[in-house]
Amino acid sequence: MDKKFILKLTIIGAIFVIIVGTVWHFIYEWSGKSVTVGLFAPMNESVWEHLKLSTFPFLIFALIELYVLRKNRKNFWCAKAAESYLPVIFIPTVFYIYTSLAGHSILAVDITTFAVAVILGKMISYKLLTADKRQPAALPLIFLVILWASFILFTFRPPHLPPFEDPIEHRYGMANG
After folding, report:
1. For 166, which of 50, 81, 105, 129 is 20 to 30 Å away at the CA?
2. Which residue range(s) make up the domain with 119?
């Protein structure tokens, strides 16, 4: 597949993840607080739970890409791992830096940070998908499974650390949420 096609797919993916990720914020409540939905969608206002806004919409779109790119999957899992981990690092870093300076969170900054993280993740994914050098698939796939498993585990058993605390209810995880 040519780079133009992959670029179009990347742009569509970024738009998809931003829109679905925005809606994703509400599906736990809309589901009647379903435990199953809470595994994949934020079930409280903690920074950690909000990382589900990008992680699982990225996964949904990755499954679409896996089908569309079935004949050209060079570096696919490496690209998807980089795309998924970037927001997990970028969003909390920006959040904690700006809130330490501002003294509080600002919704517009949070939304912008989410969109920028998605776009940066997709840009890295594009670069890896179109790179000439083939990257190994096993380790990135293992890292993705670890990330997805961490979201599920920490939904039920989060560490009592600031990123996992709901700043509104001052609780941690689903067991307390």
Report:
1. 81
2. 3-164
